[in-house]
């Protein structure tokens, strides 16, 4: 990816010329402590941060700088592999780390923040990371402008979800856009920072083998699954007003679909890549009215066993209404109305409390035109994002012995085995570094977010209007039976 003007130290590590401050709003939350700070610690350890970069956590909790550093150290120790955590490195990282207690919903507090930060902002870059609830995005942005804390040398990072509908997303984007230019806004989807997701683009656009067959004439269908064994954990209050459609499908799964289906960009730069993704979102065939009953499935987990342990039903989780009809599972049959993909169904699926944790993309090719051997099966490409990152191509080969008995064989590319000496970067490490360097290739543009909501909103409306209540499924299963039927009625099946 492109990197702005930089210096190179003797080890070959790029260092930005201009120092910057990163302010993390919601600095005592799970996202900041479990993801952002460990990622920044690794970037610091690897010499990827400017020597004068400062990290400022902002939250309501009344804590001293030392108390926050101690809290951050405890959480980072729990998240970072033991071999990667070094006391001396942490001590130098902690020197960057400061804390400021304030209520981000109160405008008057931002004057205090401005005085705390000092008057040298014109000489430094400044990044505002909003690791908060989306309902604070507008207020924080407006108050940054009022306190004169927004300018040409600032950037703002927004976590998903951007709103809960097309209307609310437009309101948030308009409020952000009134203060920051689009080039200053980084809407983050951590799935786009995963190594295998980026390898998907390399696989498609750097190998002549796949391009001729990456189309309707050769592909039977595509499956995109993101399954979790966890429940809602401590996010019950948020999740019960969101559900699987808003929390996962509108962002993560649609972004993966875009990368599978998009045309090759003219150049590998931010605008070219995002232009091609937008074309896919705009080509999605609407699912509205009675179509929601035939092409979508909602589910909600009931009590069951995960890893041998009993877990409660969703409606007994903390901060969840006992009569909640929020979906914890969603499956959809999606079609793309364009030349390349006409007639190819894309099956999307995501769920909590599933049988196993897995995120994968399955490209199911069509069978050979003439079935010469009885045991022959169609080829299949499986791109796994988690728990391990790998790419596997299933081919047919002959079993040893008499006769032509065929068996499926996998050509496996396991990234951990191919690069055994290299530590796997966490998605947030890559994305945070891109924010610092100003590279927005792996971030969502405003029109992408709104196009995704424009497609999702009619499905949510259809669920309400046609009383499509969530189908129950036991925790530890593969989801509702109706999700299996979504494929079986067409002679297909999920890859479980």
Can you tell me about this structure?
The longest helix has 20 residues, at 446-465. The radius of gyration is 24 Å and the shape is globular. The strands form four sheets. The protein has a nine-stranded mixed β-sheet, with helices on both faces. Strands 5-4-3-6-7-8 form a six-stranded parallel β-sheet. By secondary structure, the chain is of the alpha/beta class. Strand 17 (390-398) and strand 18 form a beta hairpin. It folds into two domains: 20-159, Rossmann fold; 195-424 and 446-489, Dihydrodipicolinate Reductase, domain 2 (2-Layer Sandwich). The protein is built from 15 helices and 19 strands. It starts with 5 loop residues before the first strand and ends in an 8-residue tail after the last helix. Helix content is 33%, strand content 22%. Keywords: Carbohydrate metabolism, Glucose metabolism, NADP, Oxidoreductase. InterPro entries: G6P_DH (IPR001282), G6P_DH_AS (IPR019796), G6P_DH_C (IPR022675), G6P_DH_NAD-bd (IPR022674), NAD(P)-bd_dom_sf (IPR036291). Belongs to the glucose-6-phosphate dehydrogenase family. Pfam families: G6PD_C, G6PD_N. It is an enzyme of class 1 (oxidoreductase).
How many DSSP-defined strands? 19
**What is the CATH C level class of the largest domain, in words?**
Alpha Beta
CATH architecture of the largest domain: 2-Layer Sandwich
What is the helical fraction, as a range of percent? 25-40%
Distance between the termini: 35 Å
Domain Glucose-6-phosphate dehydrogenase C-terminal: 201-495
GO biological process, one term: glucose metabolic process
Keywords: Carbohydrate metabolism, Glucose metabolism, NADP, Oxidoreductase
Pfam families: G6PD_C, G6PD_N
């Amino acid at each position: 990816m492109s990197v702005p003007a930089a210096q190179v130290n003797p080890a070959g590590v790029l260092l930005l010329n201009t120092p910057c401050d990163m302010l993390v709003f919601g600095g005592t939350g799970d996202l900041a402590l479990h993801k952002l700070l460990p990622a920044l610690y690794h970037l610091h350890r690897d010499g990827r941060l400017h020597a004068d970069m400062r990290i400022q956590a902002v939250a309501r909790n009344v804590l001293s700088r030392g108390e926050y550093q101690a809290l951050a150290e405890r959480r980072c120790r729990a998240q970072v592999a033991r071999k990667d955590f070094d006391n001396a490195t942490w001590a130098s990282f902690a020197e960057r780390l400061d804390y400021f207690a304030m209520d981000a919903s109160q405008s008057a507090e931002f004057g205090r923040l401005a005085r705390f930060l000092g008057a040298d902002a014109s000489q430094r870059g400044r990044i505002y990371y909003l690791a908060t609830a989306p309902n604070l995005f507008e207020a924080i942005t407006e108050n940054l402008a009022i306190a004169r804390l927004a300018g040409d040398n600032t950037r703002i990072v927004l976590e998903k979800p951007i709103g809960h509908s097309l209307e609310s997303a437009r309101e948030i984007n308009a409020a952000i856009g009134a203060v920051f230019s689009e080039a200053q806004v980084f809407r983050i989807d951590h799935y786009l920072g995963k190594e295998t997701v980026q390898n998907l683009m390399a696989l498609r656009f750097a190998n002549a083998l796949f391009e001729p067959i990456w189309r309707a004439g050769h592909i039977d269908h595509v499956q995109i699954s993101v399954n979790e064994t966890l429940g809602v954990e401590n996010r019950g209050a948020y999740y019960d007003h969101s559900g699987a459609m808003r929390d996962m499908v509108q962002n993560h799964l649609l972004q993966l679909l875009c990368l599978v289906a998009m045309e090759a960009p003219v150049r590998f730069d931010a605008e070219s890549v995002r232009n091609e993704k937008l074309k896919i979102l705009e080509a999605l065939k609407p699912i509205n009215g009675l179509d929601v009953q035939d092409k979508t499935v909602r589910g909600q987990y009931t009590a069951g066993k995960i890893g041998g342990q009993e877990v409660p039903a969703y409606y007994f989780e903390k901060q969840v209404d006992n009569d909640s009809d929020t979906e914890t599972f969603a499956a959809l049959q999606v079609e793309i109305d364009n030349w390349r993909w006409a007639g190819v169904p894309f099956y999307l699926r995501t769920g909590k409390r599933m049988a196993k944790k897995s995120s994968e993309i399955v490209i199911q090719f069509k069978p050979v035109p003439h079935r010469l051997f009885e045991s022959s099966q169609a080829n299949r490409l499986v791109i796994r994002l988690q728990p391990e990152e790998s790419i596997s191509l299933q081919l047919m080969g002959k079993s040893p012995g008499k006769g032509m008995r065929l068996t499926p064989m996998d050509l496996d590319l396991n990234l951990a085995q191919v690069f055994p000496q290299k530590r796997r970067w966490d998605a947030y490490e890559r994305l945070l570094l891109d924010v610092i360097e100003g590279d927005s290739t792996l971030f969502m543009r405003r029109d992408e977010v709104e196009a995704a909501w424009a497609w999702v909103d009619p499905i949510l409306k259809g669920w309400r209007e046609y009383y499509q209540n969530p189908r129950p499924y036991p925790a530890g299963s593969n989801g509702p039976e109706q999700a299996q039927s979504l494929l079986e009625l067409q002679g297909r099946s999920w890859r479980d």
